[in-house]
Amino acid sequence: MSAEHDLLKTKRALQKATENDNTQDILDIMNQLAMVKATQDLLKKTDIGKVLGKLRSHSDAKVSQRAKGIVKKWKDDVVNAGVIPSRKSSVASQPSQSSSPTSSPPKTPTTQLPSNNGPPRTIKSDEMVFKSTGNTPRDKTIELMYNSLALDSFADSELLLKRAIAIERTVFTNIGQVDSEYKTKIRSLSLNLKSKSNPGLRESTVSGELSIVKLCTMSVEDMASEESKARDRKLAEEALFKARGAGTAQAETDMFICGKCKQRKCTYFQMQTRSADEPMTTFVTCLSCNNRWKFC
User: Fold this and answer.
1) Which of 37, 70, 161, 284 has the most CB atoms at less than 10 Å from its CB?
2) Domain carrying residue 226
3) What is the pTM for the complete model shown?
């Protein structure tokens, strides 16, 4: 059985455990993934990095930290594997109607990989070229967007350049000119995309999961770190557990199995957290390990 087949099977198991929010199963599967020696070809064919990357913002601290550790290990595996072959790029930017494009001479770029110790990956280090918009600030914006998207990224240089061009073109189209509003929007996008605490925004933009049109209309709050959102969800759930009114009684039961310690000794209570015509939410606390979860 090939390593690719094994990794795809593990990926499906991880997706199922994540959908079921089974923390212990997620941790067990990630322990298996930690032993995988990653290669760029293997990660590209299985696309497991996308699944694992999302777990870095999981509400459970053990899961998020474990996911971050594996992602770092895999990056080191790929970097230490050696030099990646060179290839040529011919990505072009469509010029605005009011400008005359000028073509840059073709070059042979080298796809570089992110390194935790080396310099950051940029459009210059990747030796990427594109057709000028005929407007220097717009060209600089494309370079800035590329550099922001390339941070810690394993994506192809051509894909990063395509995304960078699309972001600049969309912002320019929405605003209509290079003015203070344009510059403010570009600055906001760049800061959020290259934020090391916000990998989810960057990765979903590169992968196409988040459309460029939607990205360019998001507010600062919308672009907030996925980790921050996870912490907010965690705090909200804890608040609900604590917000037990005088009439909210807890009952001890063995109907539920804890996803962490597999014990059945639990307490639970129910609360109406949604509209009145929807089922009540059940909040469960394990008396053995204090793990908490809820379901409707």
Assistant:
1) 161
2) 83-234
3) 0.50
